[in-house]
Automatic annotation (TrEMBL):
It comes from Thalassovita litoralis. Keywords: Cytoplasm, FAD, Flavoprotein, Methyltransferase, NAD, NADP, Transferase, tRNA processing. GO terms for biological process: tRNA methylation; tRNA wobble uridine modification. Its EC number is 2.1.1.74. It catalyses: uridine(54) in tRNA + (6R)-5,10-methylene-5,6,7,8-tetrahydrofolate + NADH + H(+) = 5-methyluridine(54) in tRNA + (6S)-5,6,7,8-tetrahydrofolate + NAD(+); uridine(54) in tRNA + (6R)-5,10-methylene-5,6,7,8-tetrahydrofolate + NADPH + H(+) = 5-methyluridine(54) in tRNA + (6S)-5,6,7,8-tetrahydrofolate + NADP(+). Signal peptide: none annotated. This is Methylenetetrahydrofolate--tRNA-(uracil-5-)-methyltransferase TrmFO. Belongs to the MnmG family. TrmFO subfamily. The keyword Cytoplasm applies. FAD binds at G9, G10, G11, M12, A13, G14. Catalyzes the folate-dependent formation of 5-methyl-uridine at position 54 (M-5-U54) in all tRNAs. Residues 5-374 form the MnmG N-terminal domain. Its main location: cytoplasm.
Amino acid sequence: MENTLHIVGGGMAGSEAAWQAANMGVRVIIHEMRPQVETFAHRTGNLAEMVCSNSFRSDDDEQNAVGLLHWEMRAANGLIMQMAQRHRLPAGGALAVDRDPFSESVTQALLAHPNISVEPGEITELPSDGHWIIATGPLTSSALGAAIQRETGAERLAFFDAIAPIVYADTVNMDVAWLQSRYDKGETEAEQKAYLNCPMTKDQYEAFIDALLAADKTEFHEGETAGYFDGCLPIEVMAERGRETLRHGPMKPVGLTNAHTPENKPYAVVQLRRDNALGTLYNIVGFQTKMKYGAQTEVFKMIPGLENASFARLGGIHRNTFLNSPTLLDDQMRLKSRPNIRFAGQVTGVEGYVESAAMGLLAGRLAAAEILGKPLPTAPQDTAMGALIHHITGGAEAKTFQPMNVNFGLFRPVDGLKGGRRGRKDRYKAYTDRAKEEFNQWLEAQI
Ligand SMILES: Cc1cc2nc3c(=O)[nH]c(=O)nc-3n(C[C@H](O)[C@H](O)[C@H](O)COP(=O)(O)OP(=O)(O)OC[C@H]3O[C@@H](n4cnc5c(N)ncnc54)[C@H](O)[C@@H]3O)c2cc1C
């Protein structure tokens, strides 16, 4: 097998992957379809173009999981972070950048690298030999999308995400909510208590429907067809179809008994389903939405038991091509059915510029190490990069897999620390301290 690494897609992930692999001494070819083939969101032919916001979010590496990912990428000599720093704009604690100079300087750095070349053009088939990383992002071209589906099965590559909001389990008020599966279904106690249930009276339900109907919503981008499939209608659209629709759909109260007041039959029930193996995250079942983020927090906090909930991520419906990574990829990010191909970036089911670049960094290093004959273990699970890769290739529920951004709910607990809101500051500091130490050890082992 030839020793060149081919990277399809020069976005956040592909650019970072190329930089890392080239710095390890591997020859890299980036195949980028823009500007010959355009997407509805990109405006230029630059590599690493920011398609929407100009922010890499929080830069706090002690109390924020995204900030920790910044720290890890800087420690690994990441190109995206270097250029973001160079073109940084004042934005309080966030890392915002001047977008065009940022992507121009990423492009120039890659073109100037002696081990990297860029071959313009769309890749439309999955290659059968050679070393490849596919980093074609949320707007993967349709021809390549179809080729991926032929390999994986149509149901394992989605073209939209319909994300229900995800809540930190320890912020749910268990004096109001209770654990129970509908009709106590399941063989084991864990299965019979797989859901968190939040009850509503008639008045609470009516007020909730009013708030849903009145909330601010976002529209689809131009060129991004709505194409709701029936299984994932936004809740506010369901509410528009009739005030009782939700009560007969995701909020139906049947088969559930309020453990706190068994004599009171709830009028409606909001169910939350476990979202990760650790049991730290729960998603609100059937609550995909196009409400604006501010409106979502206001409306969802009206749900009894979620008055003080913190959200690991809010809901949304977007054009987004992504794999069912928990079933398709190994922890080296290789396609199990064709291990010469890795995937990286948003197409693996992470969400956001930072997460995508981080997955590119990891894939670039793993691929280069394999080409050089010195295979590398994937990032340790207690680092931010490791928590993400562990989630998408193993920890996440495969059946309900939806894209994920980095958050502390993906981290294993540190023993002996207080839970809940009060202990949060110490807990987050402990997570970030542990992650930095382990990330440094992982990097040192590569020297
Ligand atoms: C409309 C929209 C708005 C978004 N807003 C934000 C935001 O505000 N903040 C945020 O953090 N994230 C946002 N995202 C998500 C964002 O796209 C990702 O976080 C990030 O860009 C993903 O990086 P990536 O490298 O995986 O994909 P991209 O950066 O999209 O890079 C993929 C590259 O692959 C190329 N490509 C695709 N198919 C082929 C092919 N067959 N052959 C060759 N090249 C190909 C594309 O041209 C592109 O350059 C948004 C996404 C969309 C669609």
